[in-house]
């Protein structure tokens, strides 16, 4: 169903496509747990990781996903390329395409660039994050993480907490969660909200305490200091007071509820050191590492469904 | 015939060797069009990409070529290496060799360095471009591109246009074209010509209009701004007037003729934006992307003929 | 015997484990000499090269070792990672682990960091050098090099010459040589010795002439200019006078004796240009390239013994 399709934003994915991706992810999650973590599914395919922004987890996640599917993956980072010679992105893309590449994974710091790229070229593109716009594979891995814990999305209550305005994760996750029937509340002070809040059509709260007892999923966003033009964010003290997840708040969460974060966590800001170092039952609520594990499997599923 | 041979410059390649490379390229071009773009020919061989200059297309082209032949390829870029510790190139090479490497692909910003390297070490070296001296794999892919369009080299007229003095592509291409029986004319103002023009033994014209109607191949060189010591190049306005390829000139070219460029194109300088964005019959004259596609196949052929 | 074990320092390796590694190295050295330098032993394993310091030989050596065992290896260099976003090392490690990685090779500029890491995580870690503390795989490849030349360690006399205080190689090599029954003498002026020389329990000489005629192994250390806080090292002239290996001294060495160096050599400091360029019998004493060759095989043996 996803054959040859680009994954640019949540809007262009149907509920059926999302379900298909989640189902396929199950089998690939199992591959990563095997002794021999490799299947020959995409042998002889060439995938390019084209990253215009530095990245650890997403780039490595795609690289591992590709290798576990036996595909060849070429890492192409903008700083070492002939972009230094003043080549345009589109001429670079034409060059990559001319080498008979099967799929390109693109991250770019400008919103909309990946969409533009996907319209220009004839092979599938996966958006690995563009500016403040979208990060669809993050949303899919987050949704899969929720599915693993709750099985069913119906009636689930998610609170997305923090830096909404600067976060492509927020945009993709909120859209995908709502598309799949999860009830979403946004928790953020007005200074961290976009102007067009009607777009999301969700309830807004100003303090994490308003949702902490009732939410099934507390999704903590990363403060995107590097994407803030002006210093509009609250002070750390204020952040902790209204938005930060500490042990006291963690204990108030209802049974079976979970905490998610796209990583890397700003320790002491979004989540306290104490919570990050928690063990036992409290730590069991944190899904952060499972998100990473599921990320490899979701990306394997996407590459497989698009290319095989 | 190429067994264990280094590819350093055009001069040391015989006509028979060139023909053998072109023939072998046919079969590898077909591999890149398959669904499974991989053959086991060089499994268990270790190739090192040793680049002392930034590069997109050439480095990636070799990397993809090696992977499609199932070889292991190690990217070794000078800036991340222990060259920072003051190690000499030759000690670095000895280290690489001691790891039982089968072939080294070298790019270096100083003319002659790759030749020197090949004389120092016992394994095959492929010159991926050195200073203003040679870029033999570019010349071979260019020749292959011409062969695909014209089948026979005899009687073909090529015009090589632009920054002759700073271009290793010019040097390698002119030598190879002439070796294979193509008639070559150089088009450049005196400020873009080397002192020893007798070396080339070709006719020189000062304006692209002198060749545009008669040439089978218009080979546009990239202005090597990064290799110019002083600002000796003409202004963009002058360049466009005497050397630039625009739609008017493209339309004057005879039927079946082609335009080539080693890339990346300085849009608006060597070739106008309008030509670069052309579609239909006019665009059909541009071989730039085919050159890139053929580049992977030529490099596969070279690696295969040298190592298998 | 090494199953799932981390390799952090020499102290935690038993004589039996060391012997097992050396034995296994024999068979992998043979693999690197084959036409097809690849065995399927670690197919489907994922290894991460996590280097917080620039490195040529060690990083490439592990990369080649992993590929010759058919493992997937991910190069993760700190400068291109999200460590730029202020992520802690330990959160980075958690992320890597969550991607179902089988083994991490770590180099770090702070002594003790790799040990700390290995205590924090559940998968095997190999120390590829940390600060001034340890470089156990270097010591193992050095020991293997000695074994290849002398077969037996008993009664061998090794002199370790130069920058003891700044060298992790010195520390690991001296410990391992003594553990295996080699008699070790340190040659260094007091300014290049650590305060706690009792730790080593070896004789100390101040001039290479004191050992040159009697030693079976002259192990020249690299001057670690990059690790010296203050300019405490001797002048080049003084270094040459008391510690440098020149042709005169090389000729005084007894029959069958060898010269080693971890590389890269500071030519003209630890070893003279003349010695580095020697040929014939004199050059036959230099084991520097064999050390590199053996390094790949030792690392293959370690990866194999830990992971298979």
Short description, anyone?
Three copies of one chain form a homotrimer. Chain A contains eleven helices and nine strands. Chain A is an alpha/beta fold.
Structure description:
The first copy, chain A, has 308 residues and is of the alpha/beta class. The first copy, chain A, has 11 helices and 9 strands. Chain A is globular. The relative contact order of chain A is 0.16. At the B-C interface, strand 2 and helix 3 of B face helix 2 and helix 11 of C.
Into which percent range does the helicity of residues of chain A fall?
Answer: 25-40%
State the oligomer. homotrimer
CATH architecture of the largest domain in chain A: 3-Layer(aba) Sandwich
Tell me the CATH topology of the largest domain in chain A: Rossmann fold
């Amino acid at each position: 169903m996803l054959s040859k399709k680009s994954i640019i934003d949540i809007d262009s994915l149907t509920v059926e496509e999302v379900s298909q991706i989640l189902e396929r992810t199950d089998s690939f999650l199992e591959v990563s747990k095997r002794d021999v973590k490799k299947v020959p599914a995409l042998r002889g395919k060439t995938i390019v990781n084209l990253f215009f922004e530095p990245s650890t987890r997403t780039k490595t996640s795609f690289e591992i996903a590709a290798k576990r599917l036996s595909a060849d993956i070429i890492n192409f980072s903008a700083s070492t390329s002939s972009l230094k010679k003043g080549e345009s992105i589109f001429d670079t893309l034409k060059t990559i395409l001319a080498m008979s590449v099967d799929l390109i994974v693109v991250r770019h710091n400008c919103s909309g660039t990946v969409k533009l790229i996907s319209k220009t070229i004839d092979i599938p593109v996966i958006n690995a994050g563009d500016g403040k716009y979208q990060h669809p594979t993050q949303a899919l891995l987050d949704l899969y993480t929720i599915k693993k814990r709750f099985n069913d999305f119906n009636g689930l209550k998610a609170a997305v907490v923090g830096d909404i305005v600067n976060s492509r994760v927020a945009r993709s996750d909120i859209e995908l969660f709502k598309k799949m029937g999860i009830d979403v509340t946004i928790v953020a002070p007005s200074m961290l909200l976009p102007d067009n809040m009607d777009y999301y059509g969700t309830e807004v709260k100003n303090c994490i305490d308003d949702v902490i007892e009732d939410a099934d999923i507390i999704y903590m966003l990363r403060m995107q200091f590097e994407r803030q033009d002006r210093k509009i964010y609250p002070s750390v003290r204020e952040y902790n007071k209204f938005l930060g997840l500490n042990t006291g708040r963690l204990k108030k969460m209802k049974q079976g509820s979970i905490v998610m974060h796209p990583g890397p966590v700003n320790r002491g800001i979004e989540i306290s050191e104490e919570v990050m170092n928690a063990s036992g039952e409290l730590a069991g609520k944190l899904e952060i590492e499972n998100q990473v594990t599921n990320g490899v499997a979701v990306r394997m599923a996407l590459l497989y469904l698009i290319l095989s």
